[in-house]
């Protein structure tokens, strides 16, 4: 048979298109479950608003929920595939790294759609209840001189973007783990044991310092998850005499972007490395 | 009875005439201490229907999955239509229609039609009407959920998946396993049509050679990871014969044969040998020892495969 009569493998966009369709069918069960949960929560919220007269205000904390969703989502996306066995995906006429990346991309696309849908539902519910988006929060800011200053703060547009960026980063890390670790539970258990041993044998405060650097440093993961809210918050004695939360500084879009670029780059590198892993037995 | 030994080291043929649609070159694979493939040099000529026979655990499935680049060989390499199955894996798999040996179908929550539609996305030039024809012939309901399929239906569905993009090379692992006789004939009929349409090549692994006897034109036999024989079927039929001979009282047959004795049995004064070798040479040796050859009969494909698979002496 000559080279000309050989059948061609599909192009990348055809693969991505097929993966988007395939993933949508795979995620159908989760989609039904989500719709059911949203309906139940809507009914609950309506009763709450009608009976107690409360209002719902959209909170940036929903980003944390989305981040957890992103962490678990790869296991739903890869249901039916066996990354370390004779998986249907590895039988297709596609380079295996391309196949793994296309499936991850397709899953990521659906994750964004799901997060957006939940957010729209949440915002809609808040608006209907008379709450809506937060405006003019009163905050305390610790000035350079150490004094407390009352400020009025409205979350900026970039802070709402963190809600959608966080799940993407956790999703990419979790996808990399799923594609690179044959026995993820063993690795998790091993990691926990190693951490425990380190916590016992390492000098006092070592683990706390490592975790603090990872989470709250200039490029800490907290910037990705919450836009750096944890990093800027500190406990102070308020003018009323009570202990409360004040901000060290105002939330900073540049810090968020820098941390996001760093963690996203790390997640993508981990994903490409994991997708490049040989699938041969 | 005096054992007959070959007069010379007699080796069964393992080389074929090219060009080859599928070939492996001294492919070796170990799983821990177990040698799954022992320097296997498979040669499937273009346009052939090659039946790869062997007992369970002989290495057939490992060999087939190696062609899909799902096995990392310790030594050797594999080619499909001249494409290296590892370096040009995606291109090589585009030429292959594969039916796995396992009855477990992927994505049980999908309907057959949905699965086939998704599969079509990976094959440029996908012909939906041909797929419709295949499902109709094999009596598959496109709206049926994969999880609800019986073993036979699953095998038919897997065969449709393998044939659906009209691949030039079909690799089928136990394709008739689980099919009732009617569906087996229908499936084999479809295979014949596919061959007539595409002029393609079929590599088919089975331990039920009689089920594919009508299609096979080349035969390979594996045992303990080794390919002990591969040959055109007509050579198998002309070289592997059952000789029935009798002789005077106490006659034990020739002490030596310039051929490979596969099996031997005695019934009264008649001795029966299953021998691989030149017919004239064997008959002359028997007659020279004082015996009279009553018949020399070729074996059916299944008998031949079974006889060769059982022979421990073959190396």
Automatic annotation (TrEMBL), chain B:
Gene Ontology terms for molecular function: ATP binding
SUPFAM superfamilies for this protein: P-loop containing nucleoside triphosphate hydrolases (SSF52540)
The keyword ATP-binding is annotated on this UniProt entry: yes
Alphabetized UniProt keyword annotations: ATP-binding, Nucleotide-binding
Cross-referenced InterPro entries: AAA+_ATPase (IPR003593), ABC_transporter-like_ATP-bd (IPR003439), P-loop_NTPase (IPR027417)
All residue ranges annotated as the ABC transporter domain in the record: 22-249
Top-rank taxon: Bacteria
Pfam family membership, one: ABC_tran
Listed SMART domains: AAA
Stated name of the protein: ABC transporter ATP-binding protein
């Amino acid at each position: 048979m000559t080279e000309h009569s050989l059948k061609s493998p599909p192009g990348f966009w055809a693969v991505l298109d097929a993966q988007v369709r395939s993933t949508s069918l795979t995620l159908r069960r989760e989609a039904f479950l989500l719709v059911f949960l949203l309906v139940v929560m809507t009914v609950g919220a309506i009763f709450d608003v009608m009976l107690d007269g409360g209002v719902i205000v959209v909170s940036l904390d929903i980003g944390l929920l989305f981040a957890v969703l992103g962490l678990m989502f790869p296991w739903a996306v890869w249901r039916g595939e066996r990354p370390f066995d004779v998986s249907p995906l590895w039988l297709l006429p596609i380079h295996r790294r391309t196949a793994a990346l296309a499936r991850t991309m397709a899953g990521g696309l659906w994750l964004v759609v799901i997060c957006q849908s939940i957010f729209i539902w949440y915002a809609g519910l808040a608006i209907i209840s008379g709450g809506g988006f937060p405006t003019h929060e009163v905050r305390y800011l610790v000035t350079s001189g150490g004094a407390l200053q009352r400020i009025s703060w409205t979350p900026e547009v970039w802070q709402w973007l963190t809600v959608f960026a966080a799940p993407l980063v956790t999703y990419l890390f979790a996808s990399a783990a799923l594609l690179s670790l044959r026995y993820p539970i063993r690795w998790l258990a091993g990691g926990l044991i190693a951490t425990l041993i380190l916590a016992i044998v390492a000098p006092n405060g070592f683990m706390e310092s490592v975790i603090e650097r990872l989470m709250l440093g200039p490029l800490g993961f907290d910037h990705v998850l919450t836009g750096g809210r944890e990093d800027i918050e500190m406990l102070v004695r308020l003018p009323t005499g009570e202990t409360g939360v004040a901000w060290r500084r105002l939330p900073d879009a540049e810090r968020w972007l820098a941390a996001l670029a760093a963690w996203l780059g790390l997640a993508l590198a981990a994903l490409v490395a994991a997708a490049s892993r040989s699938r041969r037995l | 009875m005096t054992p007959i030994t070959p007069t010379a080291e007699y080796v069964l043929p393992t080389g074929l005439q090219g060009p080859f649609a599928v070939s492996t070159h001294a492919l070796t694979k170990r799983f821990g201490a177990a040698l799954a493939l022992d320097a296997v040099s498979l040669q499937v000529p273009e346009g052939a229907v090659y039946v790869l026979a062997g007992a369970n655990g002989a290495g057939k499935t490992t060999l087939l999955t190696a062609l899909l680049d799902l096995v990392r060989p310790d030594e050797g390499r594999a080619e499909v239509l001249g494409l290296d199955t590892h370096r040009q894996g995606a291109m090589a798999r585009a030429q292959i229609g594969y039916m796995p040996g396992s009855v477990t179908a992927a994505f049980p929550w999908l309907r057959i039609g949905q699965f086939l539609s998704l599969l079509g996305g990976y094959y440029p030039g996908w012909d939906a009407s041909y797929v419709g024809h295949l499902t109709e012939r094999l009596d598959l309901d496109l709206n049926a959920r994969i999880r609800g399929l019986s073993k036979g239906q699953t095998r038919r569905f897997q065969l449709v998946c393998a044939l659906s993009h009209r691949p030039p090379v079909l690799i089928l692992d136990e394709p008739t396993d689980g099919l009732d006789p009617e569906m087996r004939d229908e499936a084999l009929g479809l295979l014949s049509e596919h061959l007539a349409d595409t002029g393609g090549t079929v590599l088919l692994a089975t331990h039920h050679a009689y089920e594919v006897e009508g299609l096979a034109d080349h035969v390979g036999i594996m045992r303990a990871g080794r390919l002990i024989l591969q040959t055109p079927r007509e050579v198998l039929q002309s070289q592997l014969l059952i000789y029935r001979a009798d002789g005077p009282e106490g006659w034990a047959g020739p002490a030596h044969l310039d051929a490979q004795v596969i099996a031997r049995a005695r019934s009264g004064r008649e001795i029966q040998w299953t021998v691989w070798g030149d017919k004239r040479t064997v008959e002359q040796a028997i007659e020279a020892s004082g015996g009279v050859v009553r018949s020399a009969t070729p074996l059916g494909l299944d008998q031949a495969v079974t006889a060769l698979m059982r022979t421990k002496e073959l190396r």
